[in-house]
């Protein structure tokens, strides 16, 4: 990867600038009637978080929208960008300074490490493994070794960095698995249409696929895998800048408060997202929206009794992941989890008034459609689509 051509200076992203990442990792910008990048203010100017999915119209980022609605970010100038659907864009943009925080899967994070990007994981969202394999009804398996000789559909070729370690950790010879890049957002539709034998999926997406009449059965990572899931990464150098570090603490506190709010009142958090994205609200509706968010809360919360708080890294889980990907050749040199993951921001991020957040959540007046839902019943059927 040629790093000499990278854009070195930080600039905010105008919403009317379309950013592209080339295969070599270069960032280019095409102005769509915009005046271009605006001047930087310290310590960040507008702080930009970039999605790994190429879209923001999902429920995955509910802590941000709930926190923003509740005012938990205070006077911080924050922005969310969808980014391109290229699976590695979320780390490339942070590396070159065109975004400030990315949300990669561990596999994509390993791509960044392998390619010399000086990034660090500072807030581990996915305490449980969110990833799963979808199968057409009646074709699912709890023994992933049966996927040897079969074809797995992916939305992006970069997702192989997710599936390879997951399969290998379950005893699969990954050299015997074929992948087909079936495109975003069409890879699930391709599976339903008879292509491939399985497709990568994740918690939250399962409910969204039902809304699209994609009714599958799943091998679920949350039930069967000990690997970590997506995490927030920043440039490692930013942690050495006192002003930026203080900003990151405040910013992540907003996310932690949003996570706590969603845990206390999942339906209210869904409403916050639906207000932001009316089309998503129309497509999902209250019940599937709540189902999706409950799937994700299970992933994000993990076993909180054993965690330091929202976002804390389980270093043993991360070390197991890095050892696995080194074993299969996804990275060429061993990686120590403590060198690329840190919990130094977790204490400050979780230093908020939990009683106030609970009061905010409890005091939220739900709309009629959400108020009518039986959340306990939804929870009781959260894993009905798992392979029996």
From TrEMBL:
Which InterPro entries does the protein's record reference?
Answer: NMT1/THI5 (IPR027939), SsuA/THI5 (IPR015168), TAT_signal (IPR006311)
Q: Where are the transmembrane segments?
A: none
| GO MF, one annotated term | metal ion binding
What GO biological process terms does the UniProt entry carry, in alphabetical order?
A: thiamine biosynthetic process
**Catalyzed reactions:** N(6)-(pyridoxal phosphate)-L-lysyl-[4-amino-5-hydroxymethyl-2-methylpyrimidine phosphate synthase] + L-histidyl-[4-amino-5-hydroxymethyl-2-methylpyrimidine phosphate synthase] + 2 Fe(3+) + 4 H2O = L-lysyl-[4-amino-5-hydroxymethyl-2-methylpyrimidine phosphate synthase] + (2S)-2-amino-5-hydroxy-4-oxopentanoyl-[4-amino-5-hydroxymethyl-2-methylpyrimidine phosphate synthase] + 4-amino-2-methyl-5-(phosphooxymethyl)pyrimidine + 3-oxopropanoate + 2 Fe(2+) + 2 H(+)
Q: In which pathway does it act?
A: Cofactor biosynthesis; thiamine diphosphate biosynthesis
Query: Does the entry feature the keyword Iron, yes or no?
Result: yes
Q: Which family does it belong to?
A: Belongs to the NMT1/THI5 family.
- Put simply, this protein is called Thiamine pyrimidine synthase
What organism is listed for this UniProt entry?
Answer: Mesorhizobium temperatum
């Amino acid at each position: 990867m040629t790093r000499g051509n990278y854009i070195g200076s930080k600039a905010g992203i105008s919403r009317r600038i379309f950013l592209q990442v080339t295969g070599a990792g270069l960032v280019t910008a095409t102005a769509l009637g915009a005046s271009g990048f605006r001047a930087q203010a310290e310590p960040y100017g507008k702080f930009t978080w970039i999605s790994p999915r190429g879209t923001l119209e999902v429920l995955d980022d509910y802590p941000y929208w709930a926190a923003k609605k509740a005012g938990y970010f205070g006077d911080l100038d924050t922005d969310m960008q969808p980014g391109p659907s290229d699976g590695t864009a979320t780390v490339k943009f942070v590396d070159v300074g065109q975004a400030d925080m990315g949300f990669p899967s561990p596999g994509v994070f390993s791509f960044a490490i392998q390619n010399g990007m000086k990034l660090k994981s500072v807030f581990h969202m996915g305490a449980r493994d969110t990833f799963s394999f979808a199968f057409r009804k009646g074709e699912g398996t709890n023994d992933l070794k049966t996927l040897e000789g079969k074809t797995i559909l992916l939305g992006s070729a970069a997702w192989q960095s997710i599936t390879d370690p997951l399969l290998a950790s379950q005893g699969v010879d990954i050299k015997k698995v074929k992948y087909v890049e079936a495109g975003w957002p069409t890879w699930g539709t391709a599976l339903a249409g008879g292509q491939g034998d399985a497709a990568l999926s994740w918690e939250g997406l399962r409910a969204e696929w039902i809304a699209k009449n994609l009714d599958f059965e799943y091998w679920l990572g949350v039930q069967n895998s000990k690997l970590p899931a997506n995490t927030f990464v920043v440039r490692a150098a930013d942690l050495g800048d006192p002003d930026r570090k203080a900003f990151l603490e405040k910013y992540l506190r907003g996310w932690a408060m949003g996570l706590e709010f969603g845990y206390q009142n999942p339906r209210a958090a869904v409403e916050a997202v639906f207000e932001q994205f009316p089309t998503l609200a129309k497509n999902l509706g209250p019940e599937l929206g709540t189902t999706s968010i409950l799937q994700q809360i299970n992933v994000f919360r993990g076993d909180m009794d054993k965690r330091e708080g929202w976002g804390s890294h389980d270093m043993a889980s991360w070390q197991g992941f890095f050892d696995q990907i080194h074993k299969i050749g996804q990275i060429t040199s061993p990686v120590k989890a403590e060198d690329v993951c840190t919990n130094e921001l977790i204490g400050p991020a979780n230093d908020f008034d939990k009683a106030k957040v609970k009061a905010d959540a409890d005091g939220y007046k739900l709309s009629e459609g959400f108020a009518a839902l039986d959340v306990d019943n939804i929870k009781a059927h959260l894993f009905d689509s798992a392979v029996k």
